[in-house]
Amino acid sequence: xxxxxxxxxKLDLATESGWVRxxxxxxxxxxxxxxxxxxxxxxxxxxxxxxxLSRLLPDSLARRTGGRVVVEGQDVFSLDRTGLQRLRGSVIxxxxxxxxxxxxxxxxxxxxxxxTLALHRPAEATSAEVERWLVRVGIPSPAVRARQxxxxxxxxxxxxxxxxxxxxxxxxxxxxxxxxxxxxxTIQAQILDLLRELRRELGMAILxxxxxxxxxxxxxxxxxxxxxxxxxxxxxxxxxxxRPAHPYTAALLASVPRLGARLDALESIPGTVPSLGxxxxxxxxxxxxPKAVADCCREHPILRDLGHARTARCPFAVGDAAT
Length: 323
Hints:
There is one protein chain. This protein is α/β, with parallel strands linked by helices. The chain folds into 2 domains: 4-91 and 171-257 and 268-322, P-loop containing nucleotide triphosphate hydrolases (Rossmann fold, 3-Layer(aba) Sandwich); 103-170, no CATH class. The protein has 11 helices and 12 strands. A hairpin with a 2-residue loop joins strand 1 (4-15) and strand 2 (18-30). The mean pLDDT is 91. 31% of the residues lie in helices and 24% in strands. The strands form 2 sheets. It has an 8-stranded mixed sheet, with helices on both faces. It has a 4-stranded antiparallel sheet with strand order 2-1-4-5, with helices on one face. The protein is globular.
């Protein structure tokens, strides 16, 4: 059984002009112990999908209009308040973007981790356990750091604190939303190594949300590519990066600079990601797609099984893309 199964999920968000569709038939499966990357440009729906896994978006701002989210066999949208509190932290935990904003600026680091332990594992809510987690994520002098405030730590240290807070409840799934954004490349590598090590040590799954395909190639086992509120390609990360099946995935890969390549200009994807809900008819990507034909603006492609654990939402995707 999958740890998480998102099945044809449709979600609307409240805006000043009314309800707007932001997820439109998302299908996603997360397996125990697997690092699964969710990739796409900003505005594709990655973070909203992740927040919906534990219904972190308020019901007054987000409404499900179709599909379901099943976590460890339970439909998340059928859980009451107590069930959701048990799900959040104990089963699914989050490392949010920009730790300097996510951390409470007026609470000491140790108190913030202690608060998480008190909520989810009260028997372990001690200063010794806080310091043990700080050591576990590679923070030296834990007793000193526990008494400091977020602004007294570097960006890399703040990110490690966020990871410690997320892992203290010992979740089965860690959602890491752009965990290396705004960090220099050395610290990025350290954070990725830390996530890899903790996954191996704790046996948890990781959903890594990123736009950085270099990170995907370094750490992910599986990858799902999102565009305009839909998953357009799924598969083993090595296979997808080596031979993408969907034109959007291929365009993303082509736009990544390569060391040693002699280019007059960097590759880019023409046009822009459509605004939320302002999607074109037919294939969402067809206005930017180099392979588009007349039918692409009329026919809405389904997520096709290509074999070899790969799927793609494109009529031009063929089974040998998986080999």
